[in-house]
Automatic annotation (TrEMBL):
Gene3D superfamilies in the record: Immunoglobulins
Gene expressing this chain: ROBO2
Keyword set includes Disulfide bond: yes
InterPro entries on file: Collagen (IPR008160), Ig-like_dom (IPR007110), Ig-like_dom_sf (IPR036179), Ig-like_fold (IPR013783), Ig_sub (IPR003599), Ig_sub2 (IPR003598), Neural/epithelial_adhesion (IPR051170)
Start-end of Low complexity biased regions: 67-85
Pfam family membership, one: Ig_3
Region annotated Disordered, chain positions: 32-86
UniProt domain Ig-like: residue ranges: 95-174, 182-263
The keyword Repeat belongs to this UniProt entry's keyword annotation: yes
Signal peptide bounds: none
SMART domains linked: IG, IGc2
Official protein name in the record: Roundabout-like 2
Length: 303
């Protein structure tokens, strides 16, 4: 850049010196020339040829940024593009969910119970089982299935299945019950002798799963159901009533079966020690739950 400036200055100096020489020479010619009259102005000369391109000047300083213009109007909607190439087939994604089958199971004692547990939407998972509030005994776990052999009453309860996956843990609960047909745990003796004008309670108790319902019937040509309180499951027999004597049937029923026992009630007019001895003998051979009733009846006779 400095060399160019120097060159330009030298050219300017040469041009000025050249003009000065031409001016001096013209002045000398005028002085030596004899004085003449001014001639008629000649025609304008032809335009000279274009001079050489001058040297490019220095780049000017960058101007200030102009103001942002206003937003133009919305253009017309373009034409619909062509359909793209069909992509590869996608994979089916199923949300993770744990399932157990069956949710609740009932088996008879000695049978085998199996619960199946699996996770949907996740191929990699670890399945474990445990008994809530107890110890998992006599059981095996294979491919997520819990197998309990020879089910006993100790196996009754709830079981939790836990699935550990790469995204967390899932849990679900199933329940095991034992099916048991009704069985009497307490029942009156087969024969009860009562003094005329007295009352006695005939009580039955039974167990089973599901719990059985206790009902009393009067054995006649057609059995007649007698309402009883399901809490104490006792039938009150009053010998003052007509036809109080006869057979009474206690029946324990559930959807798994029934059990029944028959008690014969005899009303007698015997008095004194004879009735006391008969009553005492029946109390000895009857169950403990009826012992109080027998004792109460005997005491009444002694009075």
């Amino acid at each position: 850049m400095i060399n160019k400036r120097t060159e330009m200055n030298e050219l300017r100096i040469l041009a000025v010196e050249s003009r000065m020489k031409m001016t001096n020479k013209a002045d000398e010619n005028v002085e030596n020339k004899p004085k003449t009259f001014t001639g008629v102005k000649g025609n304008k000369g032809d335009k000279g040829s274009v001079g050489a391109t001058g040297i490019k000047g220095e780049t000017g300083a960058k101007g200030l940024q102009g103001r942002k213009g206003s937003i133009g109007s919305k253009g017309n909607k373009g034409n619909k593009g062509s359909v793209g190439i069909q992509g590869p087939k996608g994979e089916c994604v199923v949300p993770m969910r744990i399932s157990v089958y069956p949710v609740s199971q009932e088996v008879f004692a000695g049978e085998t119970a199996i619960f199946y547990c699996w996770v949907q939407g996740q191929t990699s998972s670890t399945i474990t089982w445990r008994k809530l509030g107890g110890v998992l005994s006599d059981a095996t776990v294979e491919e997520g299935a819990l197998r309990i052999s020879k089910v006993q009453s100790s196996h009754v309860g709830s079981y939790m299945c836990t699935a550990r996956t790469g995204l967390g843990m899932l849990r679900t609960i199933s329940r095991l019950q034992i099916k048991e047909s009704p069985k009497f745990t307490n029942k009156p003796s087969s024969e009860v002798i009562l003094a005329q004008g007295t009352t006695a309670s005939l009580c039955c108790e039974a167990t089973g799963s599901p719990p059985p319902r206790i009902e009393w019937y009067r054995a006649q040509k057609q059995s007649v159901s007698i309402p009883v309180n399901q809490e104490d499951r006792c039938l009150l027999v009053n010998t003052d009533k007509e036809n109080a004597e006869g057979d009474y049937i206690c029946r324990a029923t559930s959807r798994l079966g029934l059990a029944e026992t028959v008690t014969t009630v005899i009303a007698t007019r015997l008095i004194g020690m004879t009735l006391v001895f008969i009553t005492a003998y029946l109390c000895l051979v009857s169950t403990s739950s009826c012992h109080n009733n027998c004792t109460r009846t005997t005491n009444q006779q002694l009075k």
